[in-house]
Amino acid sequence: MKNIMARPINVFSTKPSPLSTWVVILVLCILGFYAVYFPRSNAPFPTPLNSSNLQTLFLSTSSNSTIASYLRALTLHPHLAGTEPAADTTRYVLSHFTSLGLQTHTATYRALLSYPLSSSLTAHFSDGSSVDLPLTEPAGGPGVVQPYHAYSPSGSVQARVVFVNYGREKDYRELGVNVSGCIVIARKGGEFGRGAVVETAEKNGAAAVLIYGDGETWRNGFERGNVMRGIGDPLSPGWAGVEGGESLGLEDSEVLKRFPKIPSMPLSAEVADSILSSLGGAPVPLEWRGALRSKVSHVGPGPTVLNFTYQGEKKMATIQNVFAVIKGSEEPDRYVLLGNHRDAWTYGAVDPSSGTAALLDIARRYSILLGLGWKPRRTIILCSWDAEEFGMVGSTEWVEQNLINLGSKTVAYLNVDCAVQGPGFFVGSTPQLDSLILEVTKKVKDPDSEDVSVYESWAAADGGNNIQRLSGVDSDFASFVQHAGIPSIDIYYGRDFPVYHTAFDSYNWMAEHGDPFFQRHVAVTGVWGLLALHLADDSILPFNYVSYANELQLYNNRLSNLLDQKTSLHPLAMSIQEFAFAAKEADDELKKLRLQETADCSVDMRKRALNDRLMLVEKGFLDADGLQGRQWFKHLVFGPSSDHERLNFFPGISDSFTRSTSISEGERVAAIQHEVWRVSRAIHRAASALRGEFT
Ligand SMILES: *[C@@H]1O[C@H](CO)[C@@H](O)[C@H](O)[C@H]1NC(C)=O
Ligand SMILES: *[C@@H]1O[C@H](CO)[C@@H](O)[C@H](O)[C@H]1NC(C)=O
Ligand SMILES: *[C@@H]1O[C@H](CO)[C@@H](O)[C@H](O)[C@H]1NC(C)=O
Ligand SMILES: *[C@@H]1O[C@H](CO)[C@@H](O)[C@H](O)[C@H]1NC(C)=O
Where are the alpha helices (DSSP H) in 49-120? Predict the structure, then answer.
């Protein structure tokens, strides 16, 4: 992108840090010692590397200064997907993997991305004065893309302003103002995403929408982001966008429905303040005032009028995923994937380079283990995705392209996006991995206090050892869970960091605020790396479906509180009962088989057969028809519901509540009941995959 990018900077060279050098020297000394004292052993390590000393060894090779040096190299310049500087970052990651002796490859796609050309915002106040408002950031250095919303249409709107709080449907109802033809200003809040704010504004007839982050600090930052509906390349929905492959036209109805029809832009809180403080009309509703930091007392419309112009272009760009493969020794056709995206809106120190630095460090530490004779039982693949910020494009194209191999052979996908945003451990997962997460966090040292594990400080935090669920579409796990039905985990430290998607998301912010000693990075790599070691090496997969059954039961209970008598939840209750029974049986079988650690071939076959059943259960929750109106989303337990506020599980059932407001009572009940049946059948399928027998 000539118009927005400065000349490429090529300054990637990392010195090995002193600490990592010492670790390597120490390891070499130990090896030398064993070579001298155990000359008859042909393995480089005396005792076989078993799971527990392997894990200890992995943890002992951590180095905060090495991770810091990776992060510094990754954040030297912005690396927006599809631009020349991003290609430098790709080369850096690739050469890191290659220099460690890992087998690497790349997967290249052509996808429709979106970049800004120009924008302007002028406020006309009631006293006749007007002012041009700044749409750039003081921190925006060379090559930083100007603030914009990717995939926003171009447009020019002159209209009165209305403040709509978080821009949710209920905010418009509360407001009671006709916003038709107006420019609405919304603050970013909680779970209600950027795309949903734009979609809701459009539904309510607004002509344009401006969104700002109402944080306490960094009030001059602009939160960039995409406003596309659905995920993946819009021109190749459901298949991979490869050079020479099928690509829909820009005017195709399937493509058009992915983009908003009204232009939008991010604003800084400072700029938003200068507009909002001049509004008249009704006072801001009492309920909105609680956490409101902006100087807004009235909601409008007007009298302030804005002239807002945005010009952008959508264009085909080349994107590249990078992979490093560690081949499994006994089950090379079973895969454990660790993934993180590489592209960033700006310098991307938190988002995503903290995760990329963690991935690079895991590669370094795994290669030390390999040097000591470790051979993972299953194949491990480190994945570095491109164009996540444009709607998980790199990971989605790859999942679509590899759907059958992935679906039938992948044990789990472990995602890390913004590895470190601040203090506090957070994790989301599909429920069969809950027990493993609890076990692993007990083995990793807490980064912020002495003699305490991650598990213990997490337990003491608000909500205890709370594990979130992966129903959102805010990172690369989305395709794996919601399209391919692969057990997945997502890990991060801290949340809601104030410089999200702004030019302030730099190495300095990380070193001063996010992780001053880089120990939180160390903790993330510890948890991430150990989870993968278990999943790759444990002879029986560390899956627990009893916790999945409990979770489903919880959803059933919450649903029954929401529904009236007319809908029967009996089919759902029966399917969960069957699933719970299968889970209990599998758990007993697993415990028995775990005791038989012999190298007996028939035991190995039995373990492999059990593992296959454990691995395939998640696929049972997929439905070939997917969610109504959004067929790409196949998972009926976890996925985004179109009513963004209602439920974070059973998205099809949740959708049926929303859709059925405009139809007759009888049709409404039937529509909800049908969705309940579909979920019940999915749970039966999962239970039967777990039992592994035909009916
Ligand atoms: C692993 O090997 C170490 C010796 O290196 C031994 O002390 C330990 O008991 C072994 N652990 C397991 C789980 O086999
Ligand atoms: C809102 O205003 C528009 C245009 O001024 C009008 O067409 C529409 O009917 C109004 N909507 C309501 C609910 O009053
Ligand atoms: C709004 O601003 C744009 C860009 O500065 C300008 O071209 C346009 O004439 C303005 N519109 C009105 C109605 O003043
Ligand atoms: C690494 O951790 C140590 C101990 O907390 C600290 O003294 C050092 O400054 C850290 N290094 C970096 C680069 O933050």
Answer: 51-60, 64-74, 84-99
